[in-house]
Amino acid sequence: MPVRAVAAAVVAALALGHPTQASAITHPDGTGRVPWEALVTAELSKRKALRCGGTVRDALHVITAAHCTYDRAGRPLPAGAISVVAGITSALSPEASAQQRAVAAVSSDPAYALDGGTAVHDAAVLTLDEPLDLGAPAIVRPLSLAGAGATARAGEFSGWGRTASHRPGGALHFATLEVLPSRACARFGVRFAAATMLCAGRRNADGTATGGCNGDSGSALVRRGRLVGIASFTGPRSCGDRRYPTVFVRVGDPGVNAFLRQRDPPPRPASLAAASVAGAATAGGAVRCRPGRWTGAASLSYAFARVPVLDGTAGGAGALAVAPPSRADVYRPLGGELASALVCVVRAANRGGAVTVTSANAVGAAGSVPVR
């Protein structure tokens, strides 16, 4: 795929209760304790998990990448699928200093989107079920945020991922990276947005490159004791490719900064009942979107799309938007749309995030059909 998210799907060792070989930083400077760095694990299935990094913001909150809180299909994971461990240097052999916490709520930047192979506003805050013990700052210590508009020329990066494309991760490594000019990420094309992203890496004297790899998503880039970046994605091929530095969320962006600074961020909305469509998909008719039920006092918007119908079900390739997102929950079809079926796309948003779902059914000339 054109751009690979840094997070890695791994096979979980169920007997040990944590992932085995994660799919740290390429050519790191060292390994050891980084007191603000936490391990974030998201359970995707009974045998697969997603390993990411996180930053202790305070006793009850950990910052990570938003894409670490979604499954491979882009569906938001429930809080119960995510856990956090602070105070360790190894994901595979946690020390006695480990502080494991469940996640009570997930908040992701409302502007977060996976768009065209890139992650935009890729920031999330996890609210823990119990406070971390911050009594031993050499073991677990919160990290302050850089201010809105803050910049940096270099930073300290830490993470749990691979040290090379073919080497498993799991140990906590660290390295100094240069914050590069935006042109250094020009190979990413429009996928790199300088206003909300940082381009960082380091070319070494032996020709190797130091940067992020699988398993480092969500980890911190730190300058003078403040969080300046959140690891988001790297290049399309092997880790350590000198042509593709690591891309970080720019914490100094005013929108990102305001989201991360919410004292008690609300949970992002969650769907409690599926959206559906009803009505007459005929010229002059009307198709109404029923949004289902949502948590989180969400603000709703609606879009409509035309999708092909095959063997009595709707979906697959070839979807075409016919009405952009708006507050209107009714769409009036045109004659040219009658050979397919109409679905609605509901977006629910609050200060804790935004979630988009497609209706469970579509309405066409033959009536209602399920969406696959």
Task: Please explain how this structure is put together.
With 372 residues, this protein is mostly beta strands. It folds into 2 domains: 4-260, Thrombin, subunit H (Beta Barrel); 271-370, Sandwich (Immunoglobulin-like). It is 2% helix and 44% strand. It has 1 helix and 33 strands. It has one helix at residues 254-260, and strands at residues 4-5, 8-13, 18-19, 30-31, 37-43, 48-58, 61-64, 82-86, 99-108, 113-115, 118-120, 124-128, 144-145, 154-159, 173-180, 197-203, 209-210, 220-223, 226-234, 246-250, 271-273, 276-279, 287-290, 293-294, 299-307, 309-310, 313-314, 320-326, 330-331, 341-350, 353-358, 361-364, 367-370. The strands form 7 sheets. Strands 14-15-16-20-19-18 form a 6-stranded antiparallel beta barrel. A 6-stranded antiparallel barrel has the order 5-6-7-12-9-8. Strand 6 and strand 7 (61-64) form a beta hairpin. It is elongated, with a radius of gyration of 22 Å. The model is unreliable at 6-23 (pLDDT under 50).
